[in-house]
């Protein structure tokens, strides 16, 4: 271990650690924007991650200003690109104007249709990055190809919608196969996340009241009829959708009867089209079925013989089944009144909320455009309301543009003048199209008209109101609860809580966002830093407090060691390996860098100094840390410890080893530098797009030296976003920079 042990006070050791580990804050001015301290800290942390790993994930809580963090980094790029939902294009254009940053914009919807152009982007920002969490989609494939050679900045408050695989898929965009081999504690270390309670603001964010549940009367008879529907006959390539159909219809029933009735009519239309085709000896595919299904309740006048492929099998059983299904749908539609008393009850509850909050603005969210339409029609005469969905906006007086509607509902957030009293909008009924990337700080009440499948979506909805710039003291949340029988069928609320726990375990994303009446079991995350990302944030908060203590001046050859009192024995050490600095904790003869254990050690390291500075409790700890650091550096250099993940990397590393082994001794001096550089390149972080190129290169039929030079060329072309080809051998030997030993 380098350095001479130098005994210092606990305060001096802590200050030394803080000054070495914490990145300095950057400039606060960004165009006409003044970055807040937590935003400057995120910029500094993301800058280090972009240099070290080629990417970063900022998962700050909703409303903390991730957009301007990203633009501060984009200001340092040569050619930045922003990718996000099409609906957020105008918001990003406005933000770029305020920040004085030029950046191109491309939508996820466009990526689903066509690949990204090879335009030499050096920084790609993915806003609402959870839209790119599914590797099987064309969108993900096009994105992975387009990110080759670029640094990647992911922005999402909700990186996990279902399981930890969501987070791994996002990180794989810049880490490649390494992301799928990381342990959960290592996954969290790639996430920069601060919750609203962690951030000290000039004007505090609104508090969040305990969510209130709105209970409606049950309608079990209609649910029984939905469950009892005969199974549908799917298109020839459609599979069995019987169970899925029941689940979907039950979700619609729990949202509004109007939405359910509209869905039943569409289902009936499809069944009648299939019936027509089967009667003519045709079993259509989904594509063929779309050729003559039009409108809400009509089919195009077309001959099934011309648009569907002939079927040689006997279709009599299928024809009987589809007629039975269509008949049951028709009967169910007839028994549902157009003017549903259950929907009127929903509208009454919305009016009750408006009466309870006079003068406040209310944003009500639903998954279904039909629900938004129905409830808007029922309340528009008594509450100044607006419906906003993918088709546009509508008020009692007619249609508006999306921009006009938002300016009337949230003038302060939109930068517009207050509307006249006759044009003011107090209630905005919106689909989840509006739950991402839109500032609605003027709204102080959030109403869930139905519960979506993911807790992430609930957090996004609430985040429209509870964000930077809000002036109301608290955000009040209501939710119309699914009828009890529907909850039994769907287990919807339990699914939300299960997904919330999955997110909390890895990123610390948690909170009281579900209505208390729906609670099956409480969802709370203790402040012990169990989630890796949460533990790292709490650790930063502790270490930041050490900066205020007396600075330490010591020679470069000295290793400061402090001995403090604590309730347990162990040590906290700051280690540098290459350009990376990280903490390790020692206790009971073992050393670990797991965030939760490091956080516990940091808390113990804040004790007062031991008066007697005995060597006995310090020497064994120093020896233990020395052995661990040497072993870690050796494992990294050998390609162990998760750096060699993915078949392409392993094949390339094996080929390098075979090349070195079969090279004649007199020629090894020439090959060895190429082999060492090749190992660094193969183990450097790349996204999945670059890994596909590496996979082709790994098996390329080239002579040994020519192949090694091709690997070097690959590294030069693709390591721009990862600070050069820093792989296993580029990390260097570990150096312990400071130690705090604690004991009772």
Short overview:
The protein has 744 residues and is α/β, with parallel strands linked by helices. It is 44% helix and 15% strand. It folds into 4 domains: 23-198, 3-Layer(aba) Sandwich (Rossmann fold), CATH 3.40.50; 207-215 and 340-518, P-loop containing nucleotide triphosphate hydrolases (Rossmann fold, 3-Layer(aba) Sandwich), CATH 3.40.50; 220-335, no CATH class; 647-727, no CATH class.
Secondary-structure topology with pairs:
Elements: E1 4-7, H1 10-21, E2 29-30, E3 33-34, H2 37-53, E4 55-58, H3 66-74, E5 80-84, H4 89-99, E6 104-107, H5 108-113, E7 123-127, H6 138-146, E8 151-155, H7 164-175, H8 178-181, H9 184-188, E9 191-192, E10 207-208, E11 212-214, H10 220-227, H11 242-255, H12 257-279, H13 286-290, E12 293-294, E13 298-299, H14 304-307, H15 316-335, H16 341-356, E14 361-366, H17 369-379, E15 385-389, E16 392-395, E17 398-400, H18 402-409, H19 411-414, E18 427-431, E19 443-448, H20 455-463, E20 474-480, H21 484-490, H22 492-507, H23 532-546, E21 558-565, E22 570-577, E23 580-587, E24 590-592, H24 595-604, H25 619-637, H26 647-662, H27 668-682, H28 688-698, H29 704-718, E25 734-743
Parallel strand pairs: 1-21, 4-8, 4-9, 5-6, 5-7, 7-8, 10-20, 11-20, 14-18, 14-19, 15-18, 19-20, 21-25
Antiparallel strand pairs: 2-3, 12-13, 15-16, 16-17, 22-23, 22-25, 23-24
Helix pairs in contact: 1-23, 2-3, 3-4, 10-11, 11-12, 12-15, 12-17, 16-17, 23-24, 26-27, 26-28, 27-29, 28-29
Fold-level CATH name of the largest domain: Rossmann fold
Quote the distance from N terminus to C terminus: 26 Å
Low-confidence stretches: 294-303, 510-529, 638-643, 721-731
> What is the number of domains?
4
Radius of gyration: 30 Å
| Count of helix runs | 29
């Amino acid at each position: 271990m380098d350095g001479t042990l130098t005994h210092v006070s606990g305060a001096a050791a802590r200050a030394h650690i803080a000054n070495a580990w914490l990145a300095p804050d950057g400039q606060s001015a960004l165009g006409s924007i003044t970055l807040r301290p937590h935003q400057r800290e995120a910029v500094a942390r993301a800058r280090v991650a972009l240099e070290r790993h080629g990417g970063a994930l900022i998962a700050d809580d909703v409303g903390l200003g991730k957009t301007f963090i990203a633009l501060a980094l984009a200001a340092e790029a040569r050619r930045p690109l922003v990718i996000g939902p099409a609906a957020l294009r105008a918001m990003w254009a406005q933000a770029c104007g305020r920040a004085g940053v030029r950046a191109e914009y491309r939508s996820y919807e466009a990526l689903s249709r066509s690949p990204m152009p090879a335009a030499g982007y050096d920084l790609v920002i993915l806003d609402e990055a959870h839209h790119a969490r599914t590797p099987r989609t064309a969108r993900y494939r096009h994105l992975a190809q387009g990110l080759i050679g670029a640094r990647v900045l992911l922005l999402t408050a909700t990186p996990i919608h279902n399981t930890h695989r969501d987070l791994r898929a996002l990180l794989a965009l810049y880490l490649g196969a390494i992301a799928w081999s990381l342990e959960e504690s290592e996954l969290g270390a790639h996430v920069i996340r601060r919750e609203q309670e962690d951030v000290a603001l000039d004007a505090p964010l609104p508090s969040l009241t305990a969510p209130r549940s709105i209970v409606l009367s049950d309608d079990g008879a209609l649910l029984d009829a939905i469950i009892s529907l005969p199974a549908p006959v799917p298109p020839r390539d459609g599979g069995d959708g019987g169970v899925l159909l029941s689940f979907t219809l039950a979700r619609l029933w729990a949202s509004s009867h109007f939405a359910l009735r509209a869905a039943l009519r569409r289902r009936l239309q499809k069944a009648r089209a299939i019936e027509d085709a089967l009667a003519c000896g045709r079993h259509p595919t989904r594509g063929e079925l779309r050729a003559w299904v039009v409108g809400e309740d009509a089919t195009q006048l077309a001959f099934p013989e011309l648009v569907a492929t002939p079927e040689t099998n006997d279709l009599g059983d299928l024809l009987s089944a589809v007629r039975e299904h269509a008949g049951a749908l028709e009967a169910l539609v007839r028994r549902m009144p157009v003017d549903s008393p259950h929907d009127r009850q929903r509208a009454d509850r919305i009016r009750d909320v408006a009466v309870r909050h006079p003068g406040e603005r209310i944003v009500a969210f639903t998954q279904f455009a039909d629900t938004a339409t129905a409830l808007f029609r029922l309340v528009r005469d008594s509450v100044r309301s607006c419906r906003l969905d993918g088709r546009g906006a509508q008020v009692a007086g007619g249609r508006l543009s999306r921009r006009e509607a938002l300016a009337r509902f949230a003038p302060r957030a939109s930068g517009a003048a207050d509307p006249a009293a006759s044009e003011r909008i107090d209630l905005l009924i919106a689909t989840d199209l509006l739950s991402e990337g839109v500032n609605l700080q003027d709204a102080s009440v959030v109403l869930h008209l139905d519960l979506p499948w993911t807790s992430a979506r609930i957090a996004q909805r609430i985040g429209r109101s509870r964000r930077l710039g809000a002036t109301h003291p608290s955000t009040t949340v209501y939710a119309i609860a699914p009828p009890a029988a529907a909850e039994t069928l769907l287990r919807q609320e339990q699914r939300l809580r299960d997904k919330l726990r999955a997110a909390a375990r890895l990123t610390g994303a948690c909170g009281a966002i579900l209505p208390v009446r729906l609670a099956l079991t409480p969802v709370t995350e203790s402040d012990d830093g169990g989630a890796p990302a949460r533990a790292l944030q709490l650790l930063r908060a502790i270490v930041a407090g050490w900066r205020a203590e007396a600075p330490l001046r010591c020679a470069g050859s000295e290793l400061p060691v402090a001995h403090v009192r604590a309730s347990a024995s162990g040590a906290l050490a700051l280690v540098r390996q290459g350009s990376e600095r990280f903490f390790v904790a020692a206790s009971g003869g073992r050393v670990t860098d797991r965030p939760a254990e490091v956080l516990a050690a940091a808390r113990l390291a804040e004790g007062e100094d031991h008066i007697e500075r005995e060597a006995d409790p310090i020497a064994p700890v120093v020896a233990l840390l020395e052995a661990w650091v040497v072993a870690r550096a050796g494992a990294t250099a050998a390609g162990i410890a998760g750096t060699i993940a993915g078949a392409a990397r392993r094949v390339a590393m094996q080929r390098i080893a075979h090349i070195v082994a079969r090279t004649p001794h007199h020629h090894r001096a020439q090959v060895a530098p190429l082999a060492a550089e090749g190992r660094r390149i193969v183990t450097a972080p790349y996204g999945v797009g670059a890994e596909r190129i590496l996979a082709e290169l790994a098996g390329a039929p080239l002579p040994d030296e020519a192949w090694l030079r091709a690997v070097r060329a690959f590294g030069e072309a693709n390591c721009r976003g990862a600070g050069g080809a820093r792989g296993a051998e580029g990390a260097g030997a570990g150096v312990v920079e400071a130690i705090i030993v604690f004991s009772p």
